[in-house]
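User: Some background: our group keeps a shared notebook of sequences we're curious about, and every so often someone picks one and asks for a predicted structure to add to the entry. Today it's my turn. The entry only has the sequence so far, pasted here. Could you supply the structure so I can complete it?
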Amino acid sequence: MTETVAVTDPTALSTELAPGADNAADLPEVRFSNREMSWLNFNARVLALAEDRRQPLLERMKFLSIFASNLDEFYMVRVAGLKRRMEMGLTVRSPDGLSPREILALVSERSRELTARHARCFLTDIAPALAEEGIRILRWEHLDLAQQQELTEYFHSKIFPVLTPLAVDPAHPFPYISGLSLNLAVLVRDPDSDVDRFARVKVPNNVARFVVVRRTAEDAEFLPIEDLIAAHLSALFPGMEIVQHHLFRVTRNTDFEVDEDRDEDLLQALERELVRRRFGPAVRLEVADDIDDEVLTLLTSEIDVAAGEVVRVPGLLDLTALWQVYDVDRPALKERPFVPATHPRFADGESPKSVFATLREGDVLVHHPYESFATSVQRFIEQAAADPNVLAIKQTLYRTSGDSPIVDALIDAAEAGKQVMVLVEIKARFDEQANIRWARALERAGCHVVYGLVGLKTHCKTSLVVRQEGGSLRRYAHIGTGNYHPKTARLYEDLGLFTADERICADLTDLFNVLTGYSRQTEYRTLLVAPQGLRPGLLARIEREIENAKAGKPSHIQIKCNHLVDEILIDALYRASGAGVKVELMVRTFCTIKAGVPGLSENITVRSILGRFLEHSRIFYVANDGEPEYWIGSADLMHRNLDRRVEVLTQVTGANADQLRATLDLAFDPDTAAWELQGDDRWVRGGGAKSVDYQDVLLKRLAPRGE
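Assistant: Of course. Here's the predicted structure to add to the notebook entry:
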């Protein structure tokens, strides 16, 4: 029998702030940077990696693709949110003092600047450098006659049958343009009437963007599929004269809300909203920079975008497709491959050890991707599924891969008769559809599937295994900073703690009862849990450092996270700086704190590390007067994480804490290459004379090199 549950009683989840948390009277009114501009500054740092000629060439191209994908999501969510607030007439200013209209104007100017820089980097730098290495993206006119004839045959056999030209006239309304699709705006002329007519041809998204023209061991040549279609428009409009054609692309608002209090079936409500999301209003129109003015006027009118929402792009549109070119077999133009290490505690020579026997000897901290996800997290769940002594597995899933060994193991466990409870967060943005599929597959296998708490996303990364050992039960747990996603575990830097500590396991048992039932528990023995206890727990530790500094005792705060925008915590860090506490922050993306400002944040430094892997772990350290505390977990310092999500931080102790100490020492070493935040909100590249590569050092320290 299966269960599908959406718990509807979050009444116990109000946030109570620690003493002094709202004491901001002594701080200047303008003390926060703009959130949207901080994100654009982050994406500018990504673009700088593409521009950095010290990087391997195909890695530089990869960063161009990442920049483009990031900017798409920024428009779909952040810019869309600003537009929605303006359309609703909301004039509430953000913490930096700007109105939605003012922010949108700044964002538009900055994103145009970055888009032009992005296109210029590809056209004038990376594309010519690739051509010198024999990797070319050609245009139709560059092909010789034999190549054109071969591709014409390919077009008629593989592309032409799936194309649908859509005319626009009194009998044919302007077609709906789906978000992020590539489209050709075509003007054709009737030779009898000499009248020009408009048509739209959608570039199919289920075929490769780049058609292979030629590929050898040394060379690879590609043709954009839109060029192939454009060269054969006469086949789509026989008897008509092709006057002109132009490529364009629309970005739409993909954010949405589900009324969880009204909808009895959260799954069905979300599925309805996913359909509606496809038809969100347009927030950006990208066009080729040579587009005809009359065609552009028609597009802006029919798609309903303002002139300020049109972005002219020189060269190719949608450079996210460059991932296809990255796949060419040219190892000399990429980062050296490596083989993730199996944590030494999980192996005896070449033989894997029982995870349960290992954890009875003590906790294990793994550091991905340097240490293997497959031989730690994945093996933990797989061994639990196969072990006849395991009675139950409880698991949270926020994101996972299309072919997930974690889900497969959970299904195997349920089919073997074990009690399996899985919380699948079906509101994980952009993974909603995939998570709905996983939820149904798990239900069919007999798992108890839960969607979590109404009004909250469950973002914590937790697993709990209950095992019969002799005459008693013993519990084993994993708490991580990253998703149970084997593919991103090879690209994202994350930490995970495995433990059999009875207090932590008891806390996780209680937390799972909150997630699946009507428990009102708000306090835990060892964990900091959002939304009720995480912010107060962090604030209490910051306040303790302030008191220690005032008393002349050792005080120090170090935080590594993805985002820092929570005003209450930022104010606490400002007060810590004013009390003389050394505050060191490593923030990858959103960051609205101001660093090194006289009278506000003299003792605060902020760094950002970008590189081969996406820095994703969250680490929180306080000196605590000689009894240091280290915490890791799923939460960033944002309102959504602290107020509207279930998040978990767990303390790391002993030798595992020493490992975190070494990692933080390296991250904050002045010789480690990093971007450093200035008092005027600029990010400056630093790293001292040695300019040590943080990720490269960890690779050499934790993972063997492989060919």
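Suggested note for the entry: The chain has a mean pLDDT of 91. Residues 209 and 225 are 5 Å apart (CA to CA).
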